[in-house]
């Protein structure tokens, strides 16, 4: 699974990315600081099952802090997007191609209104970030349309002549964007398009189709970033009202990055997503560092409950994509052959079954599935059993 971080130049994409990954990436106040995409690993935060069993886990990947498990997810920070990008403006559509594989997009907005649509500095509060949301949707729609249009005539005619289902032909064309046959069939149905003969679709119908396909293959959450700045709060509240179709999360990537770096150096105690932090030893910090930390506490954490960065990532994965976190474990033994307790936590699509989980662990285990056990409830369940987030599941297989 890949999570794309998108937005206009200088909105804080790389700061957000760095706050989650601590990767060394360039951050600066001029547009197009990032040219080549940055790929890295961030972590979603879930309740670890170790608390339930009163044990201490040893994650194979990621880490666990006091029962909060941090599970790896892949992130992609791309170049800034400007109006006209789909026709090559700014850095053009190269980086749109980088986003093809993304399953969900985090759209970073500069809620402080201190950068214009090209990411250039303007007086604080003078640019309306609501405009940035519509322009980004529009650019993505035009990009989808351009991918669809190029081969459209040829493959819509071919599908018609060969009496192939239109949805299968389109899903194949868009498989790189994560489109599926059933998704395409659903859109054709919802928009009442001609499912027999796609050569009859009008230009508007094609655009409508591209927009709906974009919505389904690239669902989006909005991080109203820079809420620490003066106009941030008003803009965030307005955006939340104006865009009920999106989850809009108040966010200060710069604050999260400062806290993560201070925690890494041992100055403070802090886990991503916490609603507080504590200073280990005030006498070891400079006055400037103390001022910085008290600014973050007063103007971000106390006002919004957290820096919003972890919440944005979590909600992208658990509320937008609706994934569930499931732990493999045994009724008699929670550890693997190396003695690691609850070593794995898998993120699974919604409505995954025991059998899906068995295949996720290993195809051999899926193929020789006998039954599963819900270890928390100590209950045997069948292959069709639908899993819930937080489940610990043992697979009994012939292998
Ligand atoms: N006040 C404030 N400034 C921030 C925040 N996040 C980022 N910035 C600043 O915004 C500027 C741009 O940050 P970047 O992370 O480089 O932005 P970007 O979106 O990656 O920019 P491009 O790579 O050029 O597209 C830098 O000066 C950051 O320090 C924040 O939460 N609050
Ligand atoms: Mg950048």
Helix/strand/pairing class, anyone? Answer: alpha/beta
Q: How can the largest sheet be summarized?
A: 7 strands, mixed
* Poorly predicted runs of 5 or more residues: none
Could you tell me which ligands this complex binds, including any ions or cofactors? guanosine-5'-triphosphate, magnesium ion
Task: Encode the helix/strand succession as letters.
Answer: EHEHEEHEHHHHHEHEHEEHHEEHHEEE
Q: What does the average pLDDT come to? A: 94
Distance between the termini: 28 Å
- Secondary structure tally, helices: 14
Shape: flat
What is the highest CATH level, the class of the largest domain?
Alpha Beta
- Beta-strand fraction estimate: 15-25%
Instruction: State the CATH superfamily name of the largest domain.
Output: P-loop containing nucleotide triphosphate hydrolases
> Taking Cα atoms only, what radius of gyration do you get, to the nearest Å?
23 Å
What's the number of domains?
3
The CATH topology of the largest domain is given as Rossmann fold
- Percentage of helical residues? 25-40%
Number of strand segments: 14
CATH architecture of the largest domain: 3-Layer(aba) Sandwich
């Amino acid at each position: 699974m890949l999570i794309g971080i998108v937005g206009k130049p200088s909105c804080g994409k790389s700061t957000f990315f760095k706050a989650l990954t601590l990767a060394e990436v360039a951050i600066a106040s001029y547009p197009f600081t990032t040219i080549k995409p940055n790929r890295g690993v961030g972590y979603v935060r879930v309740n670890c099952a170790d608390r339930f069993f009163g044990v201490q886990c040893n994650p194979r990947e990621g880490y666990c802090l006091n029962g909060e498990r941090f599970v790896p997810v892949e992130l992609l920070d791309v170049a800034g997007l400007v109006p006209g990008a789909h026709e090559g403006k700014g850095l053009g559509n190269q980086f749109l191609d980088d986003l093809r594989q993304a399953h969900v997009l985090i759209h970073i907005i500069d809620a402080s209104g201190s950068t214009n649509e090209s990411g250039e500095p303007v007086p604080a509060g003078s640019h309306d970030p609501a405009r940035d949301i519509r322009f980004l949707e529009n650019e993505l729609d035009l990009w989808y349309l351009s991918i669809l249009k190029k081969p459209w005539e040829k493959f819509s005619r071919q599908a018609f002549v060969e009496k192939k289902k239109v949805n299968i032909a389109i899903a194949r064309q868009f498989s790189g964007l994560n489109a599926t046959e059933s998704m395409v069939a659903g859109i054709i149905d919802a928009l009442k398009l001609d499912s027999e003969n796609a050569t009859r679709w009008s230009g508007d119908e094609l655009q409508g189709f591209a927009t709906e396909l974009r919505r389904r293959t690239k669902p989006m959450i909005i991080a109203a970033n820079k809420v620490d700045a003066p106009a941030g709060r008003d803009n965030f509240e307005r955006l939340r009202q104006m865009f009920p179709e999106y989850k809009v999360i108040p966010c200060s990537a710069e604050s999260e990055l400062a806290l993560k770096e201070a925690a890494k150096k041992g100055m403070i105690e802090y886990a991503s997503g916490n609603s507080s932090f504590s200073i280990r030893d005030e006498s070891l910090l400079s006055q400037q560092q103390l001022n910085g930390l008290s600014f973050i506490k007063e103007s971000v954490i106390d006002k919004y409950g957290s820096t919003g960065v972890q919440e944005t990532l979590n909600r992208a994965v658990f509320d937008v994509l609706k994934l569930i976190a499931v732990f493999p474990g045994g009724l008699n033994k929670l550890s693997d052959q190396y003695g690691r307790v609850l070593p794995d936590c898998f993120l699974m699509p919604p409505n995954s079954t025991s059998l899906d989980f068995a295949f996720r662990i290993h195809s051999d285990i899926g193929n020789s599935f006998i039954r599963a056990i819900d270890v928390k409830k100590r209950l045997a369940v069948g292959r069709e059993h639908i899993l819930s987030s937080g489940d610990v599941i043992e697979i009994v297989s012939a292998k």
